[in-house]
Amino acid sequence: xxxxxxxxxxxxxxxxxxxxxxxxxxxxxxxxxxxxxxxxxxxxxxxxxxxxxxxxxxxxxxxxxxxxxxxxxxxxxxxxxxxxxxxxxxxxxxxxxxxxxxxxxxxxxxxxxxxxxxxxxxxxxxxxxxxxxxxxxxxxxxxxxxxxxxxxxxxxxxxxxxxxxxxxxxxxxxxxxxxxxxxxxxxxxxxxxxxxxxxxxxxxxxxxxxxxxxxxxxxxxxxxxxxxxxxxxxxxxxxxxxxxxxxxxxxxxxxxxxxxxxxxxxxxxxxxxxxxxxxxxxxxxxxxxxxxxxxxxxxxxxxxxxxxxxxxxxxxxxxxxxxxxxxxxxxxxxxxxxxxxxxxxxxxxxxxxxxxxxxxxxxxxxxxxxxxxxxxxxxxxxxxxxxxxxxxxxxxxxxxxxxxxxxxxxxxxxxxxxxxxxxxxxxxxxxxxxxxxxxxxxxxxxxxxxxxxxxxxxxxxxxxxxxxxxxxxxxxxxxxxxxxxxxxxxxxxxxxxxxxxxxxxxxxxxxxxxxxxxxxxxxxxxxxxxxxxxxxxxxxxxxxxxxxxxxxxxxxxxxxxxx
Length: 563
Description:
Blueprint: H1 2-43, E1 73-80, E2 82-89, E3 95-98, E4 102-105, H2 111-125, E5 132-137, E6 140-147, E7 153-158, H3 163-170, H4 184-198, E8 205-208, E9 214-217, H5 219-225, E10 239-242, E11 251-256, E12 262-265, H6 272-278, E13 291-296, E14 303-308, H7 310-314, E15 328-331, E16 342-347, E17 353-356, H8 364-370, E18 384-387, H9 393-400, H10 407-423, E19 425-427, H11 431-436, E20 451-454, E21 460-465, E22 471-474, H12 481-487, E23 501-503, E24 510-511, E25 523-526, H13 534-562
Parallel strand pairs: 6-10, 11-15, 16-20, 21-25
Antiparallel strand pairs: 1-2, 1-5, 3-4, 6-7, 8-9, 8-10, 11-12, 13-14, 13-15, 16-17, 18-19, 18-20, 21-22, 23-24, 23-25
């Protein structure tokens, strides 16, 4: 029994001793890990301690395309007793040095390859936890841009920037000099520079890498397709060369029902489908099964046209067609009847608003019927149709200057043209005859964007200007101007009584009282006698005296000659 207790006590003592030994070892390991963590953070700051310049990105970096190089900064998280978050730059020799793990060669690997390699090396040292490796800040790099850009030279960009960014930087306008301070030679050089830049190629840009390889960049197709292979990432030592576009004859044309019909620079390898992509694809109205491809014969004397089933090429049932310089693609469009043709009805109808019409078919009476007809307050004699002018104001103004006309006539024509273009053109019809008398000759065919305006009956005439009390005077059919002026209190002392004008309600024409009758809604305008300074009258007297003196001199000379 005594032996049993002795053995039990011995085992208990051994267990307690082992427990304290293990605990002491754990505390020592924890202390060492914390010390290592502090040393690592002092040498390689954590993400909260490190402030780095950040590149401006237009899209996330593609790990399978981005090439790692010196000065790229990686965020590395790994378990070494505790979680360590490190910011580690790639050294000038292209390596990533991770404390307790070692030196890892990552230069010229893709980002995806570099992350996979670093994670594998960390797992060899620390089997616990899942290490993460992330590109935190793309490296700055130097590239040279030459050729037909505004400011050739070396530029500092980022590894996340693409060739397009380098060209944009080299094409920025410098601070322009004041025109007055420029010499004639400087102005000529500036004009020549702008002309040369307009001829710069957008599809044959050459990028030479430091390893001797060459890429061709096609920015125009990149903009249309967003295929980043046509606009790759920059690398250290890249040289970007922008040439002049080749011979103007080396072009292809895409016209018709595409989103951006135009003439495009030809590059080797262009194809039918690629040209359609350049033009931003087909419109919904495109007839895709019979697109015309026109090219010269081998003797370059006759044009040959081939029908191409573009749908079959898009679906892969037919092979794409290689293009040649001078080829033209014409995409015809289906006739479209579903356009939003409409007119607007305003004023005294029961249901004002916008109404759909059939082009070149719907008549005025149909639209008025759908609008519920006119109300009892409609002023049919003043109703009008206003048609939208489809021309361009600047072009119409220039066209108005043609011909051998007087200056006054030209100015008047320009004014009338601008009023017509801005306000619209009146369509002649008599609403009174159409609605009250059912006269079908007044039932005009409406056009898209027409405005049918039916004003309200006012039963008044507004008298204003040099009258005692400008006011609305109730309409009195058959009465003349004197009646309405009297109702407005009569003329003031400054009124030009002989120059009273009738302004028509609808057309805004200014007419003499003898040229029209006063109708509902018209205006009576009484102008003011102009006031002039004393010098004005003195000038008139002086000119009159000069004329009289001249006339007397002529008379005296004539009398002397008679004697």
